[in-house]
Specification:
147 residues; mainly beta; Immunoglobulin-like; 6-stranded antiparallel beta sheet; 4-stranded antiparallel beta sheet
Length: 147
């Protein structure tokens, strides 16, 4: 499955801090839009998403530097949710990290579709229009705009 979250997490997440040679986007307002997703028909372990064999009921949590920024609403029974969800714009500084968790909402226990998909927010990410983050169960794509 493929999660389309308007940030095309193309930039690789790294643990090394490097100075961004093109800093003009920092200190400005950034908007992150979760566009949608494409989710694999079965979990990575081969199990169905729900006991009744229905597709998952996905929602997305968006974090900025480890703090919850927003939650895209649950969409029932779909492998291809579309949200077009954008939390409030944020002022971003060099070294900021955006991460996304995609969750299957269930009655008793929510199942992670994937967790901790992250990207460093750099000028290259802005110039690419966002970032893309693949996992075993899907891919997240996010769009980024800067005012």
């Amino acid at each position: 499955m493929r999660i389309i979250v308007a940030l095309l997490l193309t930039a690789a997440c790294t643990t090394h801090q490097h100075h961004d040679p093109d800093p003009e986007f920092y200190g400005r307002s950034w908007t992150f839009t979760v566009l949608g997703a494409s989710i694999e028909p079965k979990k990575a372990n081969g199990q169905d998403w729900d006991p009744d064999l229905s597709p998952p009921d996905p929602f997305a949590r968006i974090y900025l530097d480890g703090q919850l920024l927003g939650i895209a609403p649950t969409i029932d029974d779909t492998f291809d949710p579309t949200w077009n969800y954008a939390p409030a714009p944020q002022i971003i500084f060099e070294g900021s990290l955006l991460s996304i968790d995609l969750i299957d909402s269930d009655t008793f226990d929510d199942d992670p579709i994937f967790q901790g998909c992250g990207t460093a927010l750099t000028s290259a990410t802005v110039k690419a229009g966002g970032a893309s983050c693949p996992s075993q169960n899907g891919t997240v794509d996010l769009a980024i705009t800067v005012e």
